[in-house]
Specification:
CATH superfamily: Cytochrome Bc1 Complex, Chain C
Radius of gyration: 19 Å
Distance between the termini: 15 Å
CATH topology: Cytochrome Bc1 Complex, Chain C
Oligomer: single chain
Number of strands: 0
Helix content: over 70%
Order of helices and strands: HHHHHHHH
Strand content: under 5%
C-alpha cells in the first residue's frame, strides 16, 4: 500500500490529456497538498502552544506578538484549514455528480466520505484551542448540536468530561486535533490513493 501511495504522488507517466485545465482539475491532489501545509504549519505551532486552560490564550498572544512570523504561521494554518474543507467538499461533490462512486469504486467512496467527516471534526476540535471568547462560543454551539443527535450526550460527555474550557476538556480536544485525527486522516489518504490505483477506473495510465 505504501508503494502505491508513493507511486500515486509521483507517477512515472502521465497522459497529456489529463494535464489539461478543467473545472475539476486535481481537486483531490490539491486537497492533499493543503493537508501537507496544515500538517507542517501545525507541527510548527506545537512548539509555542500551551494546552492549559490558563495558558492557551496567552501562548497565542505570545506567538502573534513576539515570535517572528508567528502571526503569519497561525493565519496560514487557519486559512489552510478552510481551503482544505472547501477542496475536499468540492472533490466529494464532483464524485457524486460524475457517478465516480459506482462499482468498482464504492469502497473508495466510503473512504473518501469518511475523510470528509474526519476533516470537519478535526476543524471543529481546533476551534477550542485558542481559548478566546469566540472559540468558546463556537465550541458550545457545536456541543449543543451534537447533543440533539442519538448518542450525542455520550459524545459530549467524552469530549467535555469537566465542562467546556476546563483543563481535561481542552487536553482531549488538543490530543484529538494534533494526534488522533491527523493520523486517521493520513492513514485513510494512503488507503484512498491505494484504492485509486487498485481500481484503475479513472486513471487509464496506471
Amino acid at each position: 500500500m505504501i508503494n502505491d501511495f508513493l507511486k500515486h504522488l509521483f507517477p512515472r507517466v502521465v497522459l497529456k490529456k489529463n494535464l489539461r485545465l478543467t473545472y475539476t482539475f486535481c481537486l483531490g491532489g490539491l486537497a492533499f497538498s493543503t493537508l501537507l501545509v496544515l500538517t507542517i504549519s501545525g507541527l510548527l505551532l506545537i512548539f509555542y502552544y500551551q494546552p492549559y486552560a490558563g495558558k492557551a490564550y496567552e501562548s497565542i498572544l505570545f506567538l502573534e506578538a513576539a515570535v517572528p512570523g508567528g502571526a503569519y504561521l497561525r493565519r496560514l494554518h487557519r486559512l489552510s484549514s478552510h481551503v482544505f474543507l472547501v477542496l475536499i467538499f468540492l472533490h466529494t461533490l464532483r464524485v457524486v455528480l460524475t457517478g465516480a462512486y459506482r462499482k468498482p469504486r464504492e469502497f473508495n467512496w466510503i473512504i473518501g466520505f469518511a475523510l470528509l467527516c474526519l476533516a470537519v471534526f478535526t476543524a471543529y476540535t481546533g476551534y477550542l484551542l485558542p481559548m478566546d471568547q469566540l472559540s468558546l462560543w463556537k465550541t458550545q454551539t457545536g456541543m449543543e448540536l451534537i447533543g440533539t443527535v442519538p448518542g450525542g450526550d455520550l459524545i459530549r460527555a467524552l469530549l467535555l468530561p469537566d465542562g467546556l474550557g476546563n483543563p481535561l476538556s481542552l487536553l482531549r480536544f488538543y490530543a484529538l486535533h494534533i494526534i488522533v485525527l491527523p493520523v486517521a486522516i493520513l492513514s485513510l489518504c494512503a488507503l484512498h490513493f491505494y484504492r485509486i490505483r487498485k481500481d484503475k477506473g479513472l486513471l487509464p495510465y496506471l
